[in-house]
Amino acid sequence: MTNAFARIEVAGQSMANRIVMAPMTRSRAYGPGATPTDLMVTYYSQRASAGLIVTEGIQPSPVGQGYPDTPGLHSPEQVRAWRKVTDAVHAEGGVIFAQLMHTGRISHPSLLPPGLSPVAPSPVAAKGQVFTHQGPMDFVTPQELDADGIARTIADFADAARNAIAAGFDGVEIHGANGYLIHQFLAPNTNQRTDGWGGDTAGRVRFGLEVAAAVAEAIGGHRTGFRISPANPYNDIAEQDAADVENTYTTLVTRLGELNLAYLHMIEGTDRGLTARLRKTWPSTFVLNPLTHPHPTGPDALALIQDGTADMIAFGALFLANPDLPARLAAQGPYNTPDPATFYGGDHRGYTDYPHL
After folding, report:
1. Known catalytic membership, residue 234
2. pLDDT band per the 50, 70, 90 thresholds, residue 2
3. Annotated catalytic residue, options 44, 67, 180, 263
C-alpha cells in the first residue's frame, strides 16, 4: 500500500513525497513589468518540502492577464526574476512547476496594456465582476479569437513554456480549468463556435489539445502537466449535462494521454465516480485536488493515496497556513488554521485556488 510519504518519479525526477502545493493566485508580482519579488522568493522557498510546488497562475502573454499584479513569463525581465525563485526552491531541495494561466474573458481592459481587450472562443461576456486597481468592474464582452489569434495564443503558451525552463522551472502546468481560456473552449456556454474549434466534442477539446501538444513539443511531454475541473461552475461556466461532461473529459483525457505528459491535475467535482473513471483512463501520474466542501483540503485526504484514488494530493489553504506542511502531516499535526476571510471565493475552489495574501 502506497502512502503520501513514499517517493514518486515525475518529470524525470524523484520527488520526496506525494504532497503537492496547489497553484494559488496571489497578486503579489509588484516588481517592474509584472515580475516576482523577494517576497515571492521567500514564499516558495519556505514550502520547498512539498513533493511538487505548482506556482500561482502565470500569464503566458500580456493579454492573458486577468487579475492585478499577477506575474508573467513573456519577457526577459520576468525570466530573470523567476530564476531567483527557482534557485531558492532548488537550494532547499524542492521541485517547482510554473502554472501557465491565460484567463481569456475573465479579465478587463484596465488590466491589460493599451489597445488590448480580453479574448475568448466566442463573444460571450461572463456574469459578475473582476478585481481591478480601480475596484470591482463588470466583465466586458471579449473579442472572439479568429484562426490567426488562436495560432498566436498557442505559440504564446509554447514560448512561455520555453521561458519557464530558461527561468529554471522543472516543468509547467497548463491551466485548463476554473473557467479560464482553455476551459472556455471546453464548455458549451462559452464556446459557441461553428468552426473546427467548436460545436461537437472534438471541436471543443481541440484548442486545449493543441496547446498541450505545442508545449510538449517545446519542452518535452515529461515536463508538462495539465489541469482540469470537470463541471466546475466557477467564472460562469455551465457544464451541466452529465453525459456531455463525461464525453468531453474522457475524450480530452484520452487524447492528452497520447502526448506522454508528466501528470494530470484534476479539481474534483461532486462525482467521485467520474474521478475514478478519468484516473483509470489517464496513463501516468494522477494529481487530485479532492472535493472537501465546505472545508479546505485536510489531512484526511491522504487516504486517497492509500486507496489508489490518486497518486498525489494537492493542498492549498493548509499549505498557506503551514509552510512545513509535509512534516506536520507526517507528525499528524499540529496545524495552523487557515483563515477563509483572506481568500477569494466561497466554495472549496476558492480555498484551493484563489487565496489573496
Report:
1. no
2. confident
3. 180
